[in-house]
Amino acid sequence: MKKSSSEDNDVEPAALETNEQQEVVEQYAAYMAGQDKEEYRQVGELLWRRYCEREEPNIRKAEVFSATLSYLIETKIAKATVTKKAIAIHFGVSPSTLSKRLKELESSLAGDVREVNKALEQLEKTNTGT
Fold this sequence. Notes:
Blueprint: H1 5-8, H2 19-34, H3 41-55, H4 62-77, H5 84-91, H6 95-128
Helix pairs in contact: 2-3, 2-4, 3-6, 4-5, 4-6
């Protein structure tokens, strides 16, 4: 069922297709809250939903995708300096597994990440009056 545009802005969006996909979102949201980056939570959730719709990932260990999504948002959207190793340790996964999945997410979401960054740049310009 296609969602209306107003549903896309809900704080608590509808459940994802699988429990594993939902588990990734929950772990990611908890991580971002712990990093005091709640403002990036919804961006990551939106990108995760798009990834799941496009790729229908086979999730054996949600922590791998949670770590990968967290790293992607931290480095590509929040522009934070964080290492794959640190994120991997936090989620209990190997940095090499994170790297493998990161390539997949980056490939699928490259255009979306560019759009988000462009929107954030425009918002920053609006907020600073430049």
